[in-house]
Structures are given as C-alpha cells and as structure tokens.
Amino acid sequence: MKLVSIGRVAVGVVLAAALAMGQKQPQPKSQKEVEALQAMFNATTPDARITAADDLLKKFADTDFKAIALYMQTISAEEKGDYEKILLYGERTLEANPKDYAVMLIMARNISARTREFDLDKEEKLGRAEKYANEAMELAKVAPKPRPDLDDAQWEAARKDFVAQGHQALAIAATVRKKNDVAIQQYELAISSAAQVDPVDRVRLGAAYNTAGRPDDAIKVLDQALADPQLNPAIRNAATNEKLKAAKLKEAKK
User: Fold this and answer.
1) Mind giving me the DSSP string for 72-110?
2) Which of 192, 210, 190, 209 minimizes the C-alpha distance to 201?
3) Cα 8 from Cα 187, distance rounded (Å)
4) Structure pTM?
5) pLDDT tens per residue across span 57-98
6) What is the DSSP string of 155-209?
7) Which of 13, 78, 168, 231 could make an SS bond with 190 (beta carbons 3.0 to 4.6 A apart)?
8) Are 149 and 8 in contact (CB under 8 A)?
9) DSSP element (H, E) containing 217
C-alpha cells in the first residue's frame, strides 16, 4: 500500500522517540492511520497532542506508533505540569517500551521534585525515582544513534545531556532526603557531564553549597549561571537571591 509521508518533522520525532529506545522504525498501515498520525504530530498545544494521541490509539489499536503516542502524551503532560497524568502516561509508555529512557528521566525528575520530606511514602517514591534515573543513564550510555543523518558528535552531545538529566534527578532526590553532600556530588556530575548545562542545576548547586557552608563555591557557580545573557528572568532572580545569601554567609565567616 502506498502511503503519503507523515512529514519530515514527524519522522524526526518518530526516530528520536523510537529508534533511540531500541525499536525499529514504525510504519503506518493505512491512509487513515497516516491522517491520525499527522493530526498528532501537527498538534500545536499539549492538550491537542494528548487528544490526537488518544484518537490514534483508540482507532488503531495495533499501531506501530503506540509507544510514541504515549511518549508524546507524557511530554505533553509534563509541559502542562500535570503530575498525575505524567505518571499515568509515563507508566503506559514504559509498558509499551520498557527501554524508553527519555520517559524514565521524565518520571525520575518529576517524582523526585514532587516528593516531600514528611510524605509517608517518601522512601518508596524516591527509590522509584532513583531506579528510573539509574536505569535511564545506563541505557542512554549505550543507546544506538537514532538517525543516520545525525553525526557522531551531535549524538554524543545528546547522550551526555540524557545522562546529566539522570544526575539531576538523583540530586533532587538527595535534597529531599537532606543528604546535601550527595546532592552536591550529583549536581556537579549533572553539570560536568552535560553538553548543554541546565542553568537551574547551577542555581540548585549554589544553594547546596550555601547549605554546606561553602559560599565561595556557591558564588562561583552562581556567577556562571548569571553570565548567560539569555538566562530566564525567574532563574536569574533565583540565582541573584542565592548569591546574596552566599555573600552574607561569607561575611559572617569573617
């Protein structure tokens, strides 16, 4: 059966979400499925993507794109900040593709970030987050290149960033446990292993240094964050406040 293309952007998403996770490139089985896929890939809002993915999964139960549709629902739920749906779609994605390290990282960072010190199930949740983070990092380190047009340097940079996200999730979990030394170690690893450093990690590391009574280290890493002229205003404000705290700590030590 001759099918129309589902689009270059869509194919890129398919390959990034499927081949990188150890799956063969999926194929649509009918023109109607192609149209459902186009609707999903062309959706411009998280709600529209979630609805289009639901439509695809309901109409084409045997679709090769099941894991990808669920992956797109997971990232859309994260974009919305809908924690319950992140867990729902994330678990469904991992049922369809147990090696989806990108979704494991989403689950790890969101579970860690939403866990509180006095939650009765704190250890169960943090243990789950740490399991996802560690497994995702191991998978990412050996993941095959997802697209033939992606050069080795680009793919190596992408893998570094996946690994950095794993360290970030572990750092958040350590912070919840009040294991500040572990949090510092993991944030340092997140920063040193990333091809493109998340500036939030620098701010969080600065806060961890302040907690550890290391204001000089805090100021150094916060200055690195503040040196970015494109830094998000909210992150810049947090970094500035943390630097002021470090300055006060440093003055108090004199």
Assistant:
1) HHHHHHHHHT-HHHHHHHHHHHHHH-TT-HHHHHHHHHH
2) 190
3) 36
4) 0.88
5) 999 999 999 999 999 999 999 999 999 999 999 999 999 999
6) HHHHHHHHHHHHHHHHHHHHHHTT-HHHHHHHHHHHHHH-SS--HHHHHHHHHHH
7) 168
8) no
9) helix 215-226
